[in-house]
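Working notes for the structural subgroup meeting. M.R. asked for a predicted model of this chain before we commit to crystallization trials. I am recording the input and output together here so anyone reviewing the notebook later can reproduce the run.

Input as submitted:
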Amino acid sequence: MAISLSVVLLLAIILVVLLRGGSIKAGPAIVAVLFGFFLASTGMADDIQRFLDSIAEMINSISF
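Returned structure, recorded in token form:
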């Protein structure tokens, strides 16, 4: 849960920066948010979550 909340927060910050910087307009941003919302309710949601979890584990396992 903490990882998914962190990812949502990070993506929200990126979206705000893109909107304020003029890189993306409000219309395409709304479409992107709705796409993500509806994608989360499809059968692909579990595969995407597993992929993101594996990336987070890989990053976590890297020791400096």
